[in-house]
Amino acid sequence: MRLPRLFTAALLAATVLGTGAPASAQTIGYIYVGPEKDYGYNTSHDLGRQHVEKTVKGTKTLHVENIPETAEVTKVMERMIKSGATIVFATSYGYLDYAIELGKKYPKVAFMHAGGLKLGDNVGTYWANSDDAIYLAGMAAGAVTKSGKLGFIAAFPIPQVIRSINAFTLGAQSVNPKVTTTVVWTGGWLLPAKEAEASNALIDAGVDVIGEQVDSPITIAQTAEKRGIHVVGKDVDVSKFAPKAVLTGASWNWGPTMVKVVDEIKAGTWKPSHIRGDLKDGTVNLDPFGPAVTEPVRKRIIAKKAEILDGKFVVWSGPLIAQDGQELLAAGKPMSMDMLESMDFFVQGVVGTIQ
User: DSSP labels for 97-116?
Assistant: First the structure.
């Protein structure tokens, strides 16, 4: 889920970027809310785009970055369609209503939107449950922390982010029940200065492992490395930028899902639906372990991963207790998709937030 941000007039006038493939090739459009080279959320989608172009023969792609979740995205999608796009991947949560409305105008164009619970006659959604991988990464955080104080730096308090914070905390508590997580909201997806400031503030307060969900994770990872603490990644593996600091993380792998959708559309068998991937089908990966994760801890995490893949352990199953002590799910009761994708609560152990 993504929220609007402000852009300069130059960014709003972004040109649709093509690949130079033959004009006769099937054209697919991709729209990003931030820069394709953020090494975070938008990079993960651009890697998916590249995978489609390499895998599906007779395909070329168009892509535009830095498009806010306003009516501007409608203009961009229309430009893509006029450039020949018959499939459009709108990769940020706030594009959904615009895609559904535009779908009525262009019934022969297929629209795929990242997340959301609305469909159109020619508009479907795709997403993946990264919570399992974040839970496993949280286990590493819980094992490595010496202070018992974890931090989490995030852009906005929206369901997908709250899910990550809760899963991170629950995973850490499974190893160390006394850990707590303090959250810092930056108010933007790509604010490196604020992210560095937030990292330092958390470290100064005794936090020694930081989780994150922003579009520029390198800043947090490198700040953590400079200060001698650890970090858990999200969206793309950034361990090469901070090899000592990164414990592990959860990375997206959108390519195979996108290829499957494109193949179905080409074959005429596609029907709009809510596609949801997970750790089991490979849409989400648990990143490699960093040197700070000991062999016994690695084995424990790998064993828990096997339980998740076998269905023997479900992260979002009761008992689940909210921050205020209220029981959210009774023992053994699974969380519904609607409750999961509209999550607006914190679990016990998330002790407070810093605005």
Answer: HHHHHHHHH-TTSEEEEES-
Intra-chain end-to-end CA distance of the chain, in Å: 20
- The kind and range of the H/E element at 171 are helix 159-175
pTM of the model: 0.88
Q: How far apart are CA 69 and CA 57, in angstroms?
A: 31
Question: For 131-251+284-354, CATH number?
Answer: 3.40.50.2300
Q: What is the mean pLDDT of each run of 10 residues along the chain (355 residues)?
A: 38 44 70 94 96 95 95 97 97 94 97 94 96 98 98 92 96 97 94 96 97 94 98 95 97 97 95 95 97 98 98 94 92 90 93 71
Could you check whether 9-128 and 131-251+284-354 share the same CATH topology? yes
Backbone torsion region of residue 230, taken as left when φ is above 0, otherwise alpha when ψ lies between -120 and 50, otherwise beta: beta
**H-run or E-run covering 211:** strand 209-213
In angstroms, how far is CA 231 from the centroid of its own chain?
16
Residue 198 and residue 153 in contact, taking contact as beta carbons nearer than 8 Å: yes
Q: Which fold does the domain 9-128 belong to in CATH? A: Rossmann fold (3.40.50)
Phi, psi of 322 (to 5 degrees): -75, 170
